[in-house]
Amino acid sequence: MTHPEPHRLNLSAARASVAVAVVLVGVKLWALWMTGALSVAASLADSALDVMMSLGAMAAVAYAARPPDDDHAFGHTSVEDLTALGQALFLMLVAAGLVWQATARLMATEAPQLHSEGAGLLAMAVSVALTAALVVWQGRVAKATGSRVIAADRLHYMADLLPALGAIAALLASRVWGVWQLDAGVALVAALVLARGSLAIGRGAWDALMDRRADPAVLDGIARIADGWPGVRGWHDLKTRTAGSRIFVHLHIELDGDQTLREAHDIGAGLRRAIIEAYPEADVIIHKDVVRET
Questions:
Q1: Of the ranges 110-114, 209-213, 241-245, 252-256, which one carries the lowest mean pLDDT score?
Q2: Which residue in 175, 197, 232, 257 has a CA-CA distance of 20 to 30 Å to 65?
Q3: What is the pLDDT at residue 161?
Q4: Distance between CA 151 and CA 161 in Å, rounded?
Q5: Helix or strand or coil: residue 291?
Q6: How far, in Å, CA of 246 to CA of 146, rounded?
Q7: φ, ψ for residue 247, nearest 5 deg
Q8: 226 and 137 in contact (C-beta within 8 Å)?
């Protein structure tokens, strides 16, 4: 089953993402109208895409929270990995676009016609503040729930900070010194950060879709719990896989064959609760075997 607290956190982060993206579109539209700056236009395009990305992330989080059914006995959390993989591919395209745009600006020979830089600076400063606050919240949620969708959405907004800062730098340099090439370097750095993060998110989503085992630290933690659990004579065949923010755990434990069925059940149930307490995102199945004779 899906635990309500991680789902609530994921959904709150997804809703905040959509709300911030819509506000940023409005702020940057006004800044573009006031300044005519291409750097602001590029940042506006990013925010417009953010709205679509964030709506997709919110839909994925809501769908992943649906309980298991006859067709999906293990739940729907894999949709998070599918969405994260799609976002990673999209982010790679955005990174390539940033490189293309930055290169074109560096090669340009004529300065763009900028005006009302002060108004643009104010709008972009508000944009950076809202984006930074969202990134902090998404980071806390992603760490608490392990959601790859929230992590991918957070990465997108982190990448947006650099173009926004580049727009501020461009407007400031244009107003004070008449320099207009400054934000191209920032855009190149943003593209590299975005590409690196996209590869990490995409690789994690791909591994989950291919039923790769859980993180070795999780495996070690489960092993330590099983090793010290009263009544467990041994264990074997620890198997895990991930799907979205969920970890599915199968474990065989070896018990004394002379004890009662109730005693054996209590040992297995207690061990299962202990594992879930340590890893709330885990879905645990314990198989009970009679202790092996040596």
A1: 110-114
A2: 197
A3: 79
A4: 15
A5: coil
A6: 8
A7: -120, 125
A8: no
Q: Residue 235, CB half-sphere, CA atoms under 13 Å: how many? A: 23
| Domains contained in the chain, CATH given | 4-209 (1.20.1510.10), 216-290 (3.30.70.1350)
Angstrom distance (rounded) from CA 212 to CA 16: 31
State the residue for tokens 């969708």. Answer: 149
CA–CA distance, 248 with 287 (Å, rounded to integer): 14
pTM: 0.59
Query: Which distant-in-sequence residues (6+ apart) come within 8 Å of 187 by Cβ?
Result: 42, 98, 99, 101, 102, 105, 162, 163, 166
205/224 Cα distance (integer angstroms): 27
Beta bridge mates, 242: 247
- At 221, give phi and psi (nearest 5°): -65, -45
